[in-house]
Specification:
A: about 675 residues; alpha+beta; 5 domains; seven-stranded mixed sheet; disordered N terminus; B: about 300 residues; BirA Bifunctional Protein, domain 2; 2 domains; nine-stranded mixed sheet; 11 strands; about 45% helix
């Protein structure tokens, strides 16, 4: 006999009409309001400094994990600083409502002892059981009353796994091998439901009502309640709300012409508990260094905002965001100024010493720079790029730029500021008198680095960029480095996306596949990228893309033109019915396993709709479809209406199939219209 | 003004008061304090340990002939290992800054994500760079793995860049201008060292001889590791520490060859692998040799 089964939440919900969160919430509100029992819940996970960029996602994850507990509540609020992840829920009940659980027993046909046994196990008499009809037949069952649990107990039980369940891209252990894993060590936990501590333990830390203030300005232990928590933190120099920290930074920089930098702002919001901008300056003589270098030092290495003068030019000033309230002695400003000065000195030192050896003379040194273990050095890559640039129709400038493009990898400046590769090469090439198209091509050849990034500025630069990316892709696929799922360590998707964008937007009227090569995996990879580009970036409909790509996709300029034609034709009245007819043609041809190869014999055509269709075909063949659809559609409709393709005479049947095949071929030069999704 | 050596003495004093063994620098060339046996081997196994030492660390490729105000072939690291890391490890670290006269209420301090990885040691950890008024003054790492082994106890490693810290405190723009001891500048003490090693490492080191030495040291490490027998009753006697010295020699030779531009693309990955194999081999054997099970067997 099957053991009695306790219904899960779904079964309970069926017995309990209150299912949706909405309904349940309003129930609780009424109950809570009536009894004054709506509770506030506060959870603060106190940690050592969490990497800023992980915090927003971690909070979102914490929200989901809490919502999965399915506790009724009015609203949730999530906040974080580098040292705390905080969840506050409002309007929780003290106790969940009592509910009924249905416990299924033996089938109606079961022997009486089995029924009695089931009843005994449930602690009731057999007559207390009811017979219920289920999808599998009639069964004895027992409706068990389950008293609602106290929310505090539910939380105490669930919170340890909620906390340790928060997803972080990289975790650590700290209490010893096999111990709990989190992003950084958990040092304290506040868990309060109303006035009560929700008691539990995670990684050796017991929950309580003590939080910690700012590391240097606040107290290490502060007693809090659900009511005064945020205020108490503020008194100890912690601004809990990221929004408020953001506003504080922006507001206090208001008088300064700061270069807009939303990503840097977000970093600083999550790197501080009490942010405060501070303005510093540097020796204007450093403005002789390229702006790219100065801004990179300030932004990437020091996390400073750069400042512009009234004309939009870089000013010898910066704004640092402190994680403290003031700098009365000026220590912090002077400290930051000195660090920046040292960094700029380094950059100038590197710039000057790099000039001692021309970019062009550095090419042989690329033999010592690994491109990829199995693909050899950057020297070998450079030589392949030179060939590719020529194949792409590049002139002498493009070839020269390809030869110089990677030479900056041997410079001190790029070793120090790797994010400036390409840019530094371009600046050096300019300083060393290379012609404008050459230095600009070196400068731009890593572009576009994202979907929003600009293309390289001119055709020569685009050719060098294509040569670089195509070589990386061809080489990587050849040695089996193929991206799978989210794993793409060599950023090959980005490279391929860059190729597609440059090709399409730069109007390269060449067959992409000729340069992609014969590798079927790489061809498929590109096909997917082309599809993605036209659909997600350019907004064409997926069936239009399928239809047009089925007619060939290697020439992206041609593909785009055909997509635009199909897009324009689509709203015309004859288009969709014609597309439906082509689907019918395709099905007929597929069922007949007919793949062409025959010659159409006009003498076998039946006069009437069949001959008329053929005549129409002869008239429109080779003409743009825009002018022919309206004429062809009634002829096709009539043909399908009056003519039986599956004629008993084999010769006539094959001739008709050939007619349809010819029509399909003619139209498929633009798109395979049978791929269009129609309502008819 | 505190001299370079006063700062070192105060930091050593501070960590001595917190239960650290104050070790002297290791007497074989290393690229970082982490490579010393006092860190690399001590973090293995279940025995708690606390140690602090200054380690002169050699990075041949970073040499600049004594010309660059911030870059050195050899710099001094103060290395602190707290195994396991106490719960107030960050507060203790901040206390060490106060001990050398930094009033943290007057300064800005941030802990910025910076994880550490040493492929040649099969080691990695999670941590931060500590930024004081925009200057990176320390590296803070919770070790997770060493020699390819998950660690039983998680140690905190604190590494102070002593020249930088001193330049900051003495308000000097060049490391060569910092005062090592009253009347003696850092440049006076070390400049010749920087200049001559840059010349040697970049221009004059005999590549063929360095390769020969590499092969010899590697051969000796391999020979010893092959002889180590985990089942031998007297395995405690086995010279794994000398075997590890051969690994350190190889590592420094690799760095010198690299600075000399003598390692080709195809060789490079392979050489890193060779060093790693030795380091991981020693770590595994050491963990076995020092394990509690061994101790129990030995007692019988």
């Amino acid at each position: 006999m099957k053991s009695p089964m306790v219904d899960d939440a779904a079964g309970t919900a069926a017995a309990d009409p209150v299912t949706s969160t909405q309904q349940r919430r309003s129930d609780v509100e009424t109950a809570a309001e009536a009894s004054g029992l709506a509770q506030r819940f506060l959870l603060e996970i106190g940690t050592e400094e969490i990497p800023d960029w992980m915090i927003p996602a971690a909070l979102e994850n914490l929200r989901l994990l809490f919502e999965k507990l399915d506790l009724p509540h009015d609203s949730l609020r999530l906040d974080a600083t580098p040292r705390r992840l905080v969840l506050r829920a409002y309007g929780l009940p003290l106790r969940l409502r009592d509910r009924e659980e249905r416990v299924q027993g033996p089938a109606k046909s079961a022997p009486a002892q089995a029924v009695a046994g089931f009843a005994r196990k449930q602690g009731v008499l057999p007559e207390d059981l009811v017979l219920e009809v289920t999808a599998k037949g009639e069964y004895y069952s027992f409706r068990k009353k389950v008293p609602g649990l106290a929310v505090k107990e539910i939380l105490a039980e669930a919170l340890p796994s909620v906390i340790l369940g928060i997803y972080f891209p990289k975790t650590m252990y700290w209490t010893g091998k096999g111990g709990a894993r989190f992003i950084r060590p958990i040092r304290w936990i506040v868990a309060l439901l109303g006035e009560d501590i929700v008691p539990f333990e995670v990684a050796g830390v017991r929950s309580g009502a003590l939080t910690a203030g700012h590391r240097r300005l606040g107290a290490p232990e502060i007693a809090v309640t659900v009511g005064d928590y945020e205020e108490r933190l503020r008194n100890h120099y912690v601004i809990l709300s990221a929004e408020e920290r953001r506003e504080k930074i922006v507001g206090e920089m208001a008088g300064i012409r700061v270069k807009r930098d939303p990503a840097l702002l977000e970093t600083l919001v999550y790197l501080t508990e009490w942010p405060k901008p501070i303005k510093g300056s540097f020796d204007p003589q450093f403005l002789q260094l390229p702006e790219e270098v100065l801004v990179t030092v300030m932004r990437h290495h020091q996390k400073y905002f750069s400042v512009e003068d009234a004309s939009g030019k870089l000013a010898p000033q910066f704004v640092a965001i402190m994680n403290t309230d003031s700098d009365p002695e000026g220590f912090i400003r002077r400290g930051n100024e000195r660090v920046l000065q040292a960094r700029f000195n380094d950059a100038r030192f590197f710039w000057d010493s790099d000039q001692k050896k021309k970019l062009a003379d550095r090419k042989p040194d690329l033999a010592h720079v690994t491109f990829q273990a199995e693909l050899g050095s950057y020297l070998e890559k450079t030589d392949r790029m030179i060939k590719l640039a020529a194949e792409l129709g590049g002139d002498a400038h493009a070839v020269r730029a390809a030869a110089l493009s990677k030479c900056d990898l041997t410079t001190e400046l790029v070793k120090e500021f790797t994010e400036l590769q390409g840019v530094v090469g371009g600046l050096y090439a300019r300083a060393q008198g290379e012609p404008e198209p050459v230095w600009q091509s070196v400068y731009d050849h890593y572009k576009p680095e994202s979907m929003d990034d600009a293309l390289p500025r001119h055709r020569t630069a685009r050719i060098v960029a294509l040569a670089d990316k195509l070589d990386t892709l061809r080489g990587s696929f050849a040695v089996g480095l193929i991206p799978t799922g989210s794993k793409d360590p060599f950023a090959l998707r980005r490279a391929a996306q860059g190729v597609v964008r440059i090709w399409a937007e730069g109007k390269f009227d060449l067959a992409l596949l000729d340069l992609v090569g014969a590798d079927t995996n790489l061809r498929a990879f590109f096909e997917e990228r082309v599809r993605y580009y036209f659909k997600d970036i350019r907004g064409f409909k997926y069936d239009e893309i399928n239809a047009c790509m089925a007619a060939g996709w290697s020439n992206l300029v041609d593909l785009e033109a055909r997509l635009e034609r199909v897009q324009a034709l689509r709203p015309t009245p004859d288009f969709e019915p014609l597309a439906a007819s082509f689907k019918r043609i395709r099905n007929i041809l597929e069922q007949a396993k007919f793949t062409g190869g025959a010659t159409l014999d006009p003498t076998l055509l039946e006069s009437g709709p069949e001959a008329q269709l053929h005549d129409e075909y002869l008239r429109i063949a080779g003409q743009p479809i825009e002018g022919t659809i309206a004429r062809l559609r009634p002829k096709i409709d009539l043909f399908f209406d009056k003519v039986l393709v599956n004629a008993p005479d084999e010769r006539i049947r094959r001739n008709r199939l050939m007619l349809l095949h010819t029509l399909r071929e003619e139209f498929s030069k633009v798109a395979d219209f049978s791929e269009i999704v129609t309502n008819s | 003004m505190q001299s370079f050596q006063e700062i070192i003495l105060k930091l050593k004093q501070y960590w001595a008061e917190r239960g650290c063994v104050i070790q002297e620098p290791y007497d074989t060339e290393v690229g970082a304090g982490t490579m010393c046996p006092e860190t690399f081997l001590r973090v293995l196994g279940p025995e708690p340990y606390r140690v602090a030492y200054v380690q002169p660390s050699r990075r041949p490729a970073d040499g600049r002939y004594g010309d660059n105000p911030n870059r050195l072939y050899k710099h001094q690291q103060l290395q602190v290992i707290l195994k396991p890391a106490p719960v107030d490890v960050i507060e203790q670290y901040l206390g060490s800054l106060e001990a050398i006269g930094i009033d943290l209420k007057q300064h800005d301090l941030k802990l910025e994500e910076d994880n550490w990885e040493a492929p040649t040691l099969g080691a990695w950890g999670i941590g931060w760079q500590v930024m004081l008024d925009g200057l990176e003054i320390s590296q803070f790492t919770y070790f997770q793995q060493c020699g390819g082994i998950d660690l039983d106890l998680v140690p905190a490693e604190l590494t102070y860049g002593l020249e930088r810290l001193t330049a900051f405190l003495q308000v000097k723009d060049s490391v060569y201008d910092i005062e090592w001891a009253p009347g003696f500048s850092y440049g006076f003490v070390r400049h010749a060292d920087e200049l001559q090693y840059s010349v040697y490492n970049f221009e004059m080191a005999d590549i063929e001889m360095l390769w020969k030495l590499f092969d010899l040291y590697e051969g000796e490490a391999a020979r010893l590791l092959k002889l180590y027998n985990p089942k031998a009753p007297d395995k405690k006697r086995f010279p794994l520490l000398p075997a590890y010295d051969q690994v350190l020699k190889c590592s420094n030779l690799f760095n010198t060859l690299d600075a000399r531009g003598a390692i080709s693309v195809t060789e490079r990955v392979g050489v890193i692998q060779r060093v790693r194999r030795m380091a991981v081999g020693v770590a595994k054997a050491w963990a076995d040799q020092q394990s509690a099970a061994t101790a129990a067997e030995a007692a019988q």
